[in-house]
Amino acid sequence: MLRTVINRSNYKFIQSRSYSNMVSASVKARVDELIKKPVFVASKTYCPYCKAAKATLGQMIPNLDDYIIELDTDSDGEEIQEYLRELTGQRTVPNIMVGGEHLGGNSDIQALNLKGSLKTKIKAAL
């Protein structure tokens, strides 16, 4: 019974910690600049959904690498991902913005691509 109380106490402590307070001002400023680019993709190198999204976007954006940040290889990756969650409500990757508009993840841009509106959004942003 004591173990249950301790576990619940620890859980409440962990749950009440605000990770967003741990996002530094410099990371926030960096992300705020990155999302001003015509296209912004927060990705992870090993993620299959990120690879699919980058393949689709790469067909429309020749210099796509200029707009990608790989969170798993960036020293600020965890903070960037948390700040993007605060901004967009999405913590998963890929996290994609075009022309300052949050489009979502891979399934979202694939749906836009099927409708034909992804290319239009990208052309307008570039």
From TrEMBL:
<dbReference type="InterPro" id="IPR002109">
    <property type="entry name" value="Glutaredoxin"/>
</dbReference>
<dbReference type="InterPro" id="IPR014025">
    <property type="entry name" value="Glutaredoxin_subgr"/>
</dbReference>
<dbReference type="InterPro" id="IPR036249">
    <property type="entry name" value="Thioredoxin-like_sf"/>
</dbReference>
<dbReference type="GO" id="GO:0034599">
    <property type="term" value="P:cellular response to oxidative stress"/>
</dbReference>
<keyword id="KW-0249">Electron transport</keyword>
<keyword id="KW-0676">Redox-active center</keyword>
<keyword id="KW-0813">Transport</keyword>
<dbReference type="InterPro" id="IPR011899">
    <property type="entry name" value="Glutaredoxin_euk/vir"/>
</dbReference>
<feature type="domain" description="Glutaredoxin">
    <location>
        <begin position="39"/>
        <end position="102"/>
    </location>
</feature>
<dbReference type="GO" id="GO:0005634">
    <property type="term" value="C:nucleus"/>
</dbReference>
<keyword id="KW-1015">Disulfide bond</keyword>
<protein>
    <submittedName>
        <fullName>Glutaredoxin</fullName>
    </submittedName>
</protein>
<dbReference type="GO" id="GO:0005737">
    <property type="term" value="C:cytoplasm"/>
</dbReference>
<dbReference type="GO" id="GO:0015038">
    <property type="term" value="F:glutathione disulfide oxidoreductase activity"/>
</dbReference>
<dbReference type="InterPro" id="IPR011767">
    <property type="entry name" value="GLR_AS"/>
</dbReference>
<dbReference type="Pfam" id="PF00462">
    <property type="entry name" value="Glutaredoxin"/>
</dbReference>
